[in-house]
Amino acid sequence: MTEYGVVTAPGTVKFERVLPGPIERVWAYLTEPDKRAKWLAAGKMELHEGGRVTLEFRHADLSAIADPAPERYKEYEHGSTMEGRVTRCEPPRVLSFTWGEKAGESHVTFELTPRGTDVVLTLTHERLPNRTEMVSVSGGWHTHLDILSGVLSGGEPRPFWSTHVVLEDEYERRIGRTKVAPDEEASPAP
């Protein structure tokens, strides 16, 4: 199992992590606003199909280390909010929701599978519109999942922005220039 996300289809990236369980604890960190705020974003989540999802991102609050947003993300320095809708909710194993509410928005699925005292978390982000979004989203999810792993293990999370920039650069190299999103033309790999 690699920590890096992999492109599994055009517009789709998938991550897997082994996290300390039990499964109900990991589920709580996906669904409860106060726990989710420690690794991803606060905000209400109605846990039924069609339920509203509000993610209130405050990336600077995810670590005790001061970490200003890089220039290309300055608009998010003081937080941002994303709205979506739950498309599947099967506690404590599957949670899916739209990443935005507009038609054609991307889609996120978390799947939890017990493995002894641990839990395998599989995150799939689909319908990403282009390579640029795939690179950014991959770096973002990788960073957030590292923070979740640290929180669940009792460690101090690394700062979000500086970690994200390094990982985004790595995904820029990892995600080839072949067709990776539904609306992109294929181009030769570097």
Can you describe this structure?
It is a single chain. A seven-stranded antiparallel β-sheet has the order 1-2-7-6-5-4-3, covered by helices on one side. The longest helix is centred in the last third of the chain and has 23 residues, at 131-153. Mean pLDDT is 91; it is low at 186-190. It has four helices and seven strands; from the N terminus they run ββααβββββαα. It is an alpha+beta fold and 190 residues long. It has a single domain (6-174), classed as 2-Layer Sandwich (Alpha-D-Glucose-1,6-Bisphosphate, Chain A, domain 4), CATH 3.30.530.20.
Question: Any key phrases for this structure?
Answer:
190 residues, disordered C terminus, single chain, alpha+beta, Alpha-D-Glucose-1,6-Bisphosphate, Chain A, domain 4
Unreliable segments (pLDDT under 50, ≥5 consecutive)? 186-190
Shape: globular
Q: What is the first-to-last residue Cα distance?
A: 26 Å
Give me the count of strands.
7
CATH class: Alpha Beta
Total of DSSP H or I helical runs spanning 4+ residues: 4
According to CATH, the fold-level topology is Alpha-D-Glucose-1,6-Bisphosphate, Chain A, domain 4
Q: How big is the Rg?
A: 16 Å
- Average pLDDT metric: 91
Strand content: 25-35%
Number of domains: 1
CATH superfamily membership, which one? START domain
Helix content: 25-40%
CATH architecture verdict = 2-Layer Sandwich
Tell me the major beta sheet: 7 strands, antiparallel
Spatial strand arrangement across the major sheet = 1-2-7-6-5-4-3
Secondary-structure element order, as H and E?
EEHHEEEEEHH
SS-derived structural category: alpha+beta
